[in-house]
Write a structure and sequence with these properties.
It contains ten helices and 14 strands. By secondary structure, it is an alpha/beta fold. The chain folds into two domains: about 100 residues, HUPs (Rossmann fold); about 110 residues, Glutamyl-tRNA Synthetase, Domain 3 (Glutamyl-tRNA Synthetase, domain 3), CATH 3.90.800.10. The strands form six sheets. It has a three-stranded parallel beta sheet. α7 packs across α8. The longest helix is centred in the C-terminal third of the chain and has 14 residues. The chain binds glutamic acid (GLU). The site of glutamic acid has 7 residues, from loops.
Length: about 290
C-alpha cells in the first residue's frame, strides 16, 4: 500500500466547479501525500481560460494547495503522440474515417448491436479496410481518428487486473468499450490516452475519481500494459446527488462553488456540503 500517495484532481475547464467537483478534489487531497491539479483541456472548442482561472480560484478558496505550474494537457501533445507511435508500432491502431452518421447507420444495420458504457460499440467498418483503401481515403483528404484494435491488444497483454480501494481486485474487461478512439479527428489524442499517459508521467500513485469513470479504468489498464507504464491504485468514489437523487451537473448553477461563495457560504460550510470536512476526511460511499 502506498503510504504517501500522489493524487490528482483533473477537471476540464468547460465550466465553473460545482459541489461534485469539490467532493472529488477534497477526496483526493484527503488521502494525504501530494495533491496535484491537472487541467484536461484537449477539447479546444469547449475549454476556456476563464474557467481555468476560476477552477484555481475556487480550489484555493476551499483551502487546497498544489505544486505549480500545473500540467495542462494542451501543452503536452508530444507525449501523447509518442504513446500513439508506440501503439502504432505494435500494429494495434487503425484509421477510422467514419462520420457519426456512418457509425449510427452501421449500428442500426447490425440489429442488436452490442452496447458499452458509452453507448453502442463501434461496428468496426474501418478495421476491415485494406491498406490501399486507407491510403486512398487519406489521399482524398478525409479526416480520420485512430482507433485501438482492442481484440488484438487484449490478445497481446493477456488478462489484466487493477485494484480499487473501495472494491478490491477487479479483472479488467477492456473489450466493453469496443475499439476506442485514441486520437480524435479534431485532436491528436483522446481522454483515455491523455489521462493514462499523464497519470504515469506525473507519478500519480492513487487515482481517485467518481465512480462514473470506473468503466474507463478498464481501458486505461490496457493502455498501461501496452505502453509499459506503472499501474496506480484506484479509488472510485460515490457521486454527490441533489435532494432528488440526481447527479450534480454543470447545469445546476446554484451548486457552483462560485455562487455558494457569493451567497456568503464559508469554505468550511462548503467543504461540509461537499461531504468532506478537514477533520473527518472523505465521507464517501465507496
Ligand atoms: N477530466 C475528467 C473530467 O473532468 C476527469 C479525468 C479523470 O479523473 O480521470 O471528468
Amino acid at each position: 500500500m502506498t503510504l504517501r500517495p500522489v493524487t490528482r484532481f483533473a477537471p476540464s475547464p468547460t465550466g465553473h466547479l460545482h459541489l461534485g467537483h469539490a467532493h472529488s478534489a477534497l477526496f483526493a487531497a484527503a488521502q494525504g501525500g501530494t495533491f496535484l491539479l491537472r487541467i484536461e483541456d484537449i477539447d479546444a472548442g469547449r475549454c476556456r481560460p476563464e474557467f481555468e482561472d476560476s477552477i484555481a480560484e475556487d480550489l484555493a478558496w476551499l483551502g487546497l494547495d498544489w505544486p505549480k505550474p500545473v500540467r495542462r494537457q494542451s501543452e503536452h501533445m508530444d507525449d501523447y503522440a509518442a504513446a500513439l507511435a508506440r501503439l502504432e508500432g505494435l500494429g494495434l491502431l487503425y484509421p477510422c474515417f467514419c462520420t457519426r452518421r456512418e457509425i449510427r447507420d452501421e449500428v442500426a444495420g447490425a440489429g442488436r448491436a452490442p452496447h458499452g458504457p458509452e453507448g453502442a460499440l463501434y461496428g468496426g467498418a474501418c478495421r476491415r479496410l485494406s491498406d490501399a483503401q486507407c491510403a486512398e481515403r487519406k489521399t482524398e483528404g478525409r479526416p480520420w481518428a485512430s482507433r485501438l484494435d482492442v481484440g488484438r491488444a487484449v490478445a497481446l497483454t493477456g488478462p489484466l487486473v487493477f485494484h480499487d480501494r473501495g472494491r478490491g481486485r477487479i479483472e479488467a474487461d477492456p473489450r466493453m468499450f469496443g475499439d476506442v478512439v485514441l486520437a480524435r479527428k479534431d485532436a491528436p489524442t483522446s481522454y483515455h490516452l491523455a489521462v493514462t499517459v499523464d497519470d504515469a508521467l506525473q507519478g500519480v500513485t492513487l487515482v481517485t475519481r467518481g465512480e462514473d469513470l470506473l468503466a474507463a479504468t478498464h481501458i486505461h489498464r490496457l493502455l498501461q500494459a501496452l505502453l509499459g507504464l506503472d499501474v496506480p491504485e484506484y479509488h472510485h468514489h460515490g457521486l454527490l446527488r441533489d435532494a432528488q437523487g440526481r447527479r450534480l451537473a454543470k447545469r445546476d448553477r446554484a451548486a457552483t462553488l462560485r455562487s455558494l461563495r457569493e451567497a456568503g457560504r464559508t469554505p468550511e460550510e462548503v467543504r461540509a456540503m461537499a461531504g468532506v470536512t478537514a477533520e473527518a476526511g472523505p465521507r464517501s460511499r465507496s
